[in-house]
Design brief:
The protein is α+β, with helices and mostly antiparallel strands and 381 residues long. The protein contains ten helices and 13 strands.
Length: 381
Amino acid sequence: MLFRGTMPTFAPGRRPMSPGNRAGLGAAVALLAVVSAVELTDGPHAHYVGLLAAVPFVAAVFAMWQFVLGAGVVATLAGAAFVGAADSAGTTGEPGITGLVNLLGIMLATGIAAGGATLRQRQADRIAELLRLASVAQQAVLRPLGPQVGSLAVAGRYISATAAADIGGDLYEALSTPYGVRIIIGDVRGKGLDAVRLASIVLGSYRHVAYERADLKTIVADLDRAVARSVGDEDFVTAALVEERGGTLTIVNCGHPAPLLLRRGNVIPLEPPAPAPPLGFMPEVKARVERLEPGDRLLLFTDGLGEARREGEFFPTADRAWRLLGHGTVGDGLASLETALVDWVRGRLEDDIALVLLEYAGPDGGATLPVPSWEVGAAGS
């Protein structure tokens, strides 16, 4: 494939040219055109040929080395044409010395720029591979949810911030246990692989103790010890734990945004009875208990949703929650919320967001309603 005119693109195969290569070649062609226009305006002289050495450097900012080399070759040919014309007109002074020096400078600049583009591309490839591996690790930690867990319809969604952003430590899980359906949502302080590592520790511990502990307060104590063993003094994990047992909803909150209960067109923040610090700071939690009604939905989310804003105005989650989440399946609701959120921030989120939406359809007919976990714990089971 050839660039219009005489510039080869050196593009492998017939794949479309990448945006970076287009930008690099476009800038190089623009600079080449400007220098050529100045030379032609100057008449039969070669005063500005040396400026063509900047052409491959401009291309190297964005383009691959093949394109940089092509831009340098074209710049060298253009420089040779201007020097040849000046020599023919006898305007170069000493025969060809200045022109030759300029041409050698363009060729040297081409080689340096192509080498720089190679190093830049290798570094970009390494970073992209690390981010890909980290994303794969994060996806392995966050297993798909639903569509049905016990008596609840469940959907989970992870919304990444801008493509250049680090991966975060947002986490969620929903399990059907002997003590009812138990859900956790949390957010690790910080980003990157360390955050993913800590999220995996929390989820690994939770997936074990959720089946073993009779009440949520004991689970919080277990998770707090797991976090304290794995982090520094300033690291922590905010979390909200939810249990649905026989139509009774129990929530304990460790410094996390309060879940939103959607009921008959109303949106009710389920704030905890008393604030508690995050995991890692020995939280003493108090449970909030609600009796669920058929059709109730519960939205769990991380603080990236609360921080989403444009021009200083935060996304009105509570005002829009019912309209976005109260209809269709729970998966449809989260898709609608994501679309509205991304549109609100014009595609530029400041933080990753984890979302879990639950729907209670009602108790199973004839099922024996088990005792809620906080009562089991109080009885010493």
